Amino acid sequence: MSQVSEQLVKECRQKLLQAKTDLLNRVREARNDLSLSEDGKSGDEADQTARVLAETEFLTQQERMRNQLMEIESALARIENGSFGVCEETDEIIEPERLKAIPWTRLSIEGAEIRESVNKRYARGS
Predict the structure, then answer these.
(1) What is the rounded CA–CA span in Å between residue 2 and residue 41?
(2) How far apart are CA 125 and CA 21, in angstroms?
(3) How far is CA 23 from the centre of its chain?
(4) Residue 106 CB neighbour total at 10 angstroms
């Protein structure tokens, strides 16, 4: 099996590190925004409801960002252990264009289609 080119790995590592930095900055900003909105804990029912909705949105956003960060960290680990760019489903090399667009991806296009097909099959069966 051929390997992902060193140049592509280098390019993807840079993109992953930049995405990680951007994500951590967004987490920090979201926390600051939430703490600013919590300054006035008093208020009528509408204010309290708005605050609860903002906190719920914050938690949902944090969960999404945490998952994204885990994917980025996992991709960086795959670069370090030499398994970066190999599809988890087919064990084939992931398309370079796909890696450039989504450097944390674990699946080739074919692998993603296979996984989606399996997930649909199990979703219908339940």
Answers:
(1) 59
(2) 41
(3) 9
(4) 20
Q: Which two tokens stand for residue 41?
A: 């804990």
- Rg over alpha carbons for the chain, rounded to the nearest Å, is 20
pTM (2 decimals)? 0.79
> How many Å apart are CA 4 and CA 20, to the nearest integer?
22
What pLDDT is stored for residue 40 in this prediction? Answer: 55
In 3D, which of 54, 70, 78 has the Cα closest to residue 4? 78
Which structural domain, as residue segments, surrounds residue 53?
Answer: 6-125
Residue 62 lies in a domain: yes
pLDDT (tens digit, 9 = 90+) per residue, 53-78? 888 888 898 999 999 999 999 999 99
Number of domains in the chain: 1
